[in-house]
Amino acid sequence: MFFVIIAALVLPIFLIYRHFSPRDDKKQRYAEEARRRGCAPAPVMRKKGFLGFGHLLDGLKASRQERGPQHVIEAIDGEMGPDVHTVIVPISDYELIDVSEHRTASWKPMFGLGIFTSRGEQWKQSRALVRPQFATDQINDLELYERHVQQLFAAIDKHQNREHNEGFTHPFDLQPLFYNMALDVMTEMLYGHSVHSQDPSERVELPSLPGYDPPDRERIGYHMDGGKAWIEIRGAFWKYRWLLPPWWFNEHCAAIHKYAEWFVQLRLQQGEKYMDGLRHQSGRPNSDRFVLLNELAHVTQDPVELRSQTLNVLTAGRDTTAALLGWIFYFLSRHRDVWVRLRCEIILIYGPYQEDDPGVTFRQLRDGLHYLTAVINETLRMAPVVPLNDRISLRDTVLPRGGGPNRDKPVFVPEGTQILIPTYALGQRPDIWGPDADQYRPERWLENGGRKFGFEYVPFGGGARQCLGQQLARIKASYVVIRMLQRYDAILSAEYPPDAPIRFHHTIENRSGSGVQVRVHDSTWDDSS
Ligand code: HEM
């Protein structure tokens, strides 16, 4: 609710999905209420297709073509003109669905009820439980990132072009390596044991747990990806999702539950000794390390709660960070000037690559590097990892403008209205970002003393349910970018054709549909060797 009101003050672009024909008494009440509040209706888009499902089908088709975010802009501009940012989209037979209920029903079978999937009182309790764990000093484990960065370098090194000793790799896709790394980091941060998808030889033997099979570390990424694809399909089918065969989705859910359950049971059985059993990492006693499961177990011993909350954070934090890293290098490989300027900043501050001394401090990362922060902000503007967010109005409310012929009147929003907030479309508006809104230009964030952002820029959401991991994601991404640019002194896009349009592949998060096809040059390459 808070978000809806605040967003309404500054977000003149949104879509309303509403029940196409509310009952007459409701209609009359809405009209009276709207009049009383001095509101005028927002423009209504044409009803399209059989039973009005045209808009929904167009959206699904665009999503399949990996251009869903652009479609939102084209659909509204095409029918209403470029100056209309608030529209009502009539979809016949569209059930009024509480968005959280929708999310809960789609996601709960896989991740259980936790901070991401719950609502109301249950969400408040979840947030109170999980939030303290994200206090900054808990997450400053740079040594953890460094170990996984080294595994990333080893994975990149496999693409080295050894025949023509020139230091450049063959063309390869960087994106899956970021997904592996993010899964490895998150599983270590959540359960204390990484799945080591980047390098399975790093896996340590786990203790035996009577009555439980060892967790399937090999296929957890596969089950997460498979389950997410089904969540997407189930979401699209919504009330007809019972038509879908349940086996595959159930198999993914069962495997993921089993994986998390194993660690939960081990923690519950071993108590504080759980931390002693973690692989010893140099320089830091295990008891000092941050493991979310361990922290949560100090507050609750409920195995289902522990499983659900950790899985909720796993899904919220893993793919989002990987997708962001992918997009950063997608743009860097296409914008040599940005790469050069960013690398200069990094080398000036931290010096060239040294394997055993990254020279990076947590404080610097938390405060943010000047140009690197601009690069991250600009990347999330051009390719938001969550390109469309949504809310439901919990009670009657008003958006301050968008109604009437001049679109300057308030718009009445009845209780239960679903509001879509197209984060990507917001980032493309010339009236907010200037005539070059469609260009990737991090400098815009530094001009005129530095751009501050409000609700016109919401890649991490806003209001009460704003992303809990924003700082963690920024710190993690910054660390990886710094180390990558120390280690590699040149990057080339290897996408074919070179001018291929950007593709937004959406499965909950939004990643590049063509991957991140690059060649990188190793700064430590010795030509004489
Ligand atoms: C680039 C990286 C990330 C992006 C773009 C992102 C984006 C978002 C967005 C848009 C939401 C709000 C969803 C809504 O409106 O309901 C959200 C919620 C959340 N995010 Fe993130 N996120 C990122 C990384 C992370 C990380 C690394 C973690 C944790 C390790 C995390 C944990 C969460 C949690 C727990 C919530 C739920 C908050 C709540 O409902 O109270 N996120 N994120």
Spell out which ligands are present.
Answer: protoporphyrin IX containing FE
Gross morphology: globular
Strand content: 5-15%
Q: Assign the structural class, choosing from mainly alpha, mainly beta, alpha/beta, alpha+beta, or little secondary structure.
A: alpha+beta
Helix content: 40-55%
Q: Which spans have pLDDT < 50 for at least 5 consecutive residues?
A: 1-21, 93-100
Question: Taking strands numbered 1, 2, ... along the chain, how are they ordered across the largest sheet?
Answer: 2-1-7-4
Q: How many strands, which pairing sense, and closed or not: the largest β-sheet?
A: 4 strands, mixed
Q: Give me the count of strands.
A: 11
Task: State Rg.
Answer: 24 Å
Order of helices and strands: HEHHHEHHHEHHHHHHHHEEEEHHHEEEE
Mean pLDDT across the residues is: 85
Query: Please, how many helices?
Result: 18
- Compute the separation of the termini in Å: 63 Å
Summary, kept brief:
This protein has 18 helices and eleven strands.
Describe this structure in words.
The protein is α+β, with helices and mostly antiparallel strands. The protein has a domain of 161 residues. It contains 18 helices and 11 strands. Helix 3 packs across helix 4 and helix 10 packs across helix 12. The site of protoporphyrin IX containing FE has 21 residues, from helix 12 and helix 18.
